[in-house]
Write a structure and sequence with these properties.
By secondary structure, the protein is α/β, with parallel strands linked by helices. It contains seven helices and seven strands; from the N terminus they run E-E-H-E-H-E-H-E-H-H-E-H-E-H. The protein has a seven-stranded mixed beta sheet, sandwiched between helices. The longest helix is centred in the middle third of the chain and has 14 residues. The protein is globular and about 50 Å long.
């Protein structure tokens, strides 16, 4: 496994590698959502569950997040799509699946719609209508001053909002993706509604699968994390 991954700007991307059976070329890259990072407990649990099933994983923090280089205020979906491209560059020779949570799922949709190196796609509570998301949750905030969900260091930037406005939605990209695609979403998700997953699923090509977890929220509270992990492991093994 590589010692370092850097994006096109030369920023080092922090990652954690979970090895699996010797000789395997399958690997799952796990991406996080907005204001998140690679060490969220449910992402660690997913990586551990996959490794135990014989599937290697690489959890990565996008630039400006977690332990990665860069500034959070410069973070946006377009920059993270480029970051994911740099991760794929570093994984030449691997059979790559990408699992993205929340905004990280939108990153995956945009990348997979134009990059054939992603051989299968997993959207976990995946954001699809990105501009509508910003309006719901950050519409009352002052850009470049207020913080997203009042998290320290997570200032809502004008660059982030302009990027979301430009993208608007990734639903039209769903029809361009020709690899197997798994959607896992909770019907009690108040951050990204289940409708986002349903809209993308309706546009996606076969093979595809939508798993709705009854009573599950957006961040897979501990009671739901094993169910999410089990669904991803089942689907990848199949």
């Amino acid at each position: 496994m590589m010692d370092a991954i850097r994006n096109a700007r030369g920023e080092r991307l922090d990652f954690s590698f979970h090895p699996a059976a010797a000789g395997t070329t399958q690997i799952v890259v796990i991406g996080h959502g907005v204001t998140g990072q690679k060490d969220r407990p449910f992402l660690i649990a997913l990586a551990d569950g996959l490794a135990q099933a014989g599937i290697a994983t690489l959890r990565v923090s996008f630039s400006g997040n977690g332990g990665s280089d860069g500034r959070f205020i410069d973070s946006n979906i377009t920059k993270e799509v480029a970051d994911l491209g740099s991760v794929l560059d570093a994984l030449a020779g691997f059979d790559v699946a990408y699992a993205g949570h929340s905004m990280g799922a939108a990153v995956g949709v945009l990348r997979a719609s134009e990059d054939q190196r992603i051989r299968s796609l997993i959207s976990l509570a995946g954001m699809v209508h990105v501009q509508a998301f910003a309006q719901r949750h950050f519409g009352g905030l002052t850009p470049d001053r207020d913080r997203m969900w009042d998290k320290p260091g997570c200032v809502l930037s004008t660059a982030y909002l302009e990027d979301l406005r430009r993208i608007d939605t990734v639903v039209d990209r769903a029809g361009r993706i020709s690899v197997p695609w798994l959607f896992v979403h909770g019907n009690a998700d108040t951050v990204v509604p289940l409708q986002d997953a349903q809209d993308a699923f309706a546009r996606a090509r076969e093979p595809k699968e939508l798993v709705v977890l009854e009573g599950c929220d957006h961040i897979w509270e501990p009671a739901f994390t094993p169910r999410m992990v089990a669904e991803v492991v089942r689907w990848l093994r199949r």
